[in-house]
Amino acid sequence: MYFIARVASLIDALNEYVGRMASWMTLGAVLLCFLVVVLRYAFSIGFPWMQELYIWQHACVFMLGAGYTMLHRGHVSVDIMYNRWSARTQAWVDIICVIVFMFPWLFVIAFTSSRFILGSWSILEASPQAAGMPGVFLFKTTIWIFCALLSLQGLSLICRRILFLNDWKPTEDSSSAQQDLV
User: Chain-centre distance of CA 69, in angstroms?
Assistant: First the structure.
């Protein structure tokens, strides 16, 4: 059980770190958007790469922050029946829903985007705009990163629910796994 708790803690730590780093892109996007507006309307200067960059930053916040949001239970959920169930039933529902719904859809997203992403990598795709951002292929890769981070967080949720269902309590040796298991 310690191994399962450790895996969950490592995944949670990864998504916590990535989510916090991605959150800084929000500030970057706001400041860059402000700069673009000031340059355009006050000085009649425009840089296409700057406009694309703040759009990319905004998209990356959502793509890279999805696992972090799941970690902190920030995704929208409709808990009409769920809240009325026992904690054990909720744990089983969480496990089943991750396996039956979340993992297959993340696989579909990753699989169907493969040609799109690999094609972009094969030509080292850049922006079609003159003076646009280079590295569109890197931006498109965030789709796979999104799938990986969210899949890992789903695995962490399953691990934590298994620990809960087995009444596992962390010892002092496993203090890094002492997060809320439910």
Answer: 7
